[in-house]
Amino acid sequence: MTLYADTAGERLDAFLARSAQNLTRSAAQKLIENGHVTKNGALAKKNDRLSPGDRVDYTLPEPKPTEIQPVEMALEIVYEDEDVLVINKPKGLVVHPAAGHQDDTLVNGLLYAMGDSLSGINGELRPGIVHRIDKDTSGLLAVAKNDLSHTVLASQLKDHTMARTYDCIVCGSFREDSGTVDAPIGRHPTDRKKMAVTARNSRNAVTHWSVVARYRGYTHIRCQLETGRTHQIRVHMAHIGQPILVDTVYGHQGKELGQESQCLHASALTFRHPRDGRPVMVFAPLPEYFQSVLSKLERML
Question: Domain range spanning residue 8?
Fold first, then answer.
């Protein structure tokens, strides 16, 4: 595939992530490092700077057959057709295999349930996975059954036409009934396992929030993502001084109200169907752990 640079001074990996369909910055860097990208006919480096009109050619390697073990598990499928399914992921379930989680992930369960009926675009570790949610975040996750669906849904993620809504309980109170956090997110400058609001090597991030209910010392809010950065809601809420309840990574001190991890739930997902463009709206009710916290808060009023 061929692209032509349209700006001066942009890094090659950033240009690829911006211009090529379904390529993240890290995926673009991997393509370059593995010799799958040329700039004006010569092998490229990820930090090459481009000039307007530079020709960039890249190839996507064929997906390798997966070696992940299919594992039978109970999956709550809330929407399914021949192209897409949407899973209501429980808190505590890791999405794809990683260190310490090789055979107890959502991908293991999907391979058992779907077999070869999953997109191969994201490679052997993430077959069908269009976007991710954290291990300790519950809620809706879209899965592509074929490469066409994956490409279209990834494009909707990129241009923000896939709408994702989250419910969460945060520490503290809001004066306003709604608002927006518009603050860039990048790697934490000293802790590489965390993200942070920072102007250095960051990407724009926008979260819209509205109050659902107020309690003594806590607030139930609903967040709409305009962008989809790693840990975006968690980072933004901590940034404005109201971290998500029991988010010990981003500002909360420890276990509280019977919870051991963040109180964050992906409650609604809206997208255009990849085959015919019709709107698809999927909802997931608040899970038991979330309702338990709300009941305790209501008794404190």
Answer: 2-58
